[in-house]
Amino acid sequence: MIQLIIKRLAIAIPTLIIIIAFVFGLMRVAPGGPFTNERALPPEIEQKINEAYDLDKPLIQQFGIYLSKIAKGDLGPSYKYKDFTVNELILSGFPISLTLGISAIIISLLLGSLLGIIAAIKRNTIFDYAVMGVSLIGICVPSFVLAPILSLFFGLYLGFLPISGWNGGNIYNLILPVVSLSLPQIAIISRMMRSSTIETLNSNFIRTARAKGIPKRRIITKHVIRSSILPIIDYLAPATAGLMTGSIIIEQIFGLPGIGRYFVVGALQRDYTLVSGVMILYASLLMFLILLSDILRAILDPRVKIK
Amino acid sequence: MQTILNVNDLSVNFDTSQGLIKAVDNISFSIKKGECLGIAGESGSGKTQTFFSITGILSDNGSATGIADFNNVDLLKLTEKELSEIRGKKIGFIFQDPMTSLTPHMNIGNQLIEVSMIHKKNTKKDALKKAKEVLDIVKLPRIENLLKKYPHELSGGMRQRVMIGISLMCDPLFIVADEPTTALDVTTQKEILKIFNDLKKYKDITIALISHDIGVISEVSDTILIMNEGRIIEKGNCKEVLTSPKHEYTKHLLSCVPEWMK
Questions:
Q1: CB within 8 Å: A211 and B150
Q2: Does the residue B250 lie in any domain?
Q3: What is the pLDDT of residues A221-237, one digit of tens each?
Q4: Do B152 and A226 touch (CB under 8 A)?
């Protein structure tokens, strides 16, 4: 287990450098720069700014300076949010995005698996058709359509829930964004869980369990779930990636001060350091989740050997 | 001798997309206590479905009609819950494919003790004692070590022995062995059949041995049923039927055994 973690960390560093290089290159290829304005700056001022931010040096040298700063844990100054470093911006926004993301993923996993299992057990009944029908809609309707509809209905017409703002992490402010973020994932996970549970229910070892006279409930909890949950564990990382991109839009719609907006605004305004800072964070998070799902899989399935 | 299972007018149907398919067509037979009944026939002849239906482990689209008196209880009239109290306790099962018939994420010990803990309300300690006992009967070595292993760490023959062990956990009256040796190589097959012969001799267990292999059946069975297309073609003493078959289909089945083996 420890071997696996060390190995993954060793792979993570070159992976991150490649990602940083990629973002760095892409941002420079994009036309304009952080200090390009509609009204041209006097050349000597522009020269001074470029010097201050090392933008006058050759690209390779810029990249080297940037990498060595990152190695020290400094993501550099933001080019657009003056007086803020990227570290400060991420530290202020990340707890909000993290709360949103973790709540959404936990709810999607629990609710999605539960609905999928029940639909599989009660397959071809009204319950099954209802869950699968609703989940089809959930897959088709993107969260940026779902979110305004939900806030219109629950926020404006019924007046139950606030439609925007963070409010210090108040639970009522969290409900609508978390629901709109997790519904598409619940839909996907419940479908995956349903089909893998049906497959497990039809397997030979479940017939053995029935032949052993084990009560139905125990068959499900002890024999079925641990096998049928495996595809969901593998889906953990892609689901997180989906939630990350989803949260960029959701944070905008619900006016939450997370890091999603820095990603979009940073890219549009060519805030080089901010974009790659957020990118590094997202990439590390994703790699951590892939590692986590590999560890979980090995714990659940004795046939998997950790190497 | 006392009759343990008496089946009358049993039919099994499957509701498929091609309409209703009759797998077993109005068959009747009985098994005496301590007897080993061999059921022979080609695949699709309904031999497995006969026993799956009376014990209630048919797949969801199957249904059975008729009477199946087991120990003076009509199994076909019982609810799923009542049946599950008989399965594993009074009727043990051994299936065809040992590679996939054990739960992959549960260790051997837990798969064994679960049976007697549920049916006999045994404590874990008593159940473990019983588990070691049955693994000894099926001649598995290094039992302590084995209990902690997972199915994928065992060979096919060992898994089938574990399967037999599971079926013996509650000292059943009756064991249904559905093609127990088909997936095994010949030497392992021989050893497994020896276990069956021992069970008959020392434990007085009634066995229904389902197989397409006449050779396997002739080694263990006292009586034999020949089935084809859901019907019983011929039944009687195993030796008599196999040495002087009366029905064309039986003769045909026997002609499939190579000449020199007879």
A1: no
A2: no
A3: 999 999 999 999 999 88
A4: no
In a domain, B253, yes or no: no
Q: Which residues of A275-305 are buried (b: 16+ CB within 10 A; e: fewer)?
A: bbbbbbbbbebebebbbebbbbbbeebbeee
Q: Is the CATH number 1.10.3720.10 carried by domain A89-271+285-300?
A: yes
Using the 3D structure, point to which of B169, B189, B209 is the last residue of a domain: B169
Question: A212, A223, A225, A228: best mutation site toward chain B, by most B Cβ within 10 Å?
Answer: A212
Model pTM above 0.95: no
pLDDT digits (tens, 9 = 90+) for A102-126: 999 999 999 999 999 999 999 889 9
| Residue A24: closest CA among A72, A61, A52 | A61
Same domain for B27 and B40, yes or no, is yes
Query: Span A34-57, mean pLDDT?
Result: 78
* CA dist list (Å): B60 to A240, B15, B16: 37, 9, 11
Look at A303 and B95 and tell me if their CB atoms are within 8 Å: no
Inter-chain residue contact B89 with A223, CB threshold 8 Å: no
The per-residue pLDDT of chain B, averaged, comes to: 88
Interface test with B, best of A122, A128, A199, A205 (most B CBs within 10 A): A205
Domain span at residue B39 reads 1-90+173-231
